[in-house]
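INFO batch 0412 | record 1 of 1 | parsing
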Amino acid sequence: MNDKADRQRLENAGQGEGGAQFDRIVAKVVAWVEDRLNSGESANPDWHPDIEAWSASSHDGDDEAPPILLGELMTRLTDPNYGGFPPGTFALRKPGNLSQNIAAGGSVQFEWDKSTNVYFYEFEVSLDPQFIDPPVYKNAELAHVVDLPTGTLKPGKQYFWRVTAKNSKGMQQAVGNPFSFMTKG
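INFO prediction complete | emitting tokens
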């Protein structure tokens, strides 16, 4: 790679419509590196099979995107002030909002969409819709499905649940409003 020419393409890509395109490319490469780091694997971007030719053309179908500079990626990843890419948006799935007659005595399964750039999900169940009081249940999970332990919920109560996705640097994404449900009883 010609560093001077690549740097110029990188700077040009940061302007206008190409800037958003460049950010998407960088997000993909950084996510790949972060995933490897989070799983304890080596994360040298040189080892990515497509890194020399990494461009939108190899992933998004646009031949005009500039290649990624390895130095630029490593700078972003090693800068203590770099927060990474925030988790993507996602939705809560089940139990659905305003669900009724949820069994209080058994295990209840909670599910939400997977997000991108996630290090873990913070899952909470509370009797308080504002989540000011201590939660009935709180857990940090990598999975997007949680089985609430048997006996956690009491009969005849309204509960609220929410999930916050967090990346490895602490940036977070939460679903707008918590879901609520009523237990039998």
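INFO post-check: Residues 3-78 form one domain.
INFO record closed
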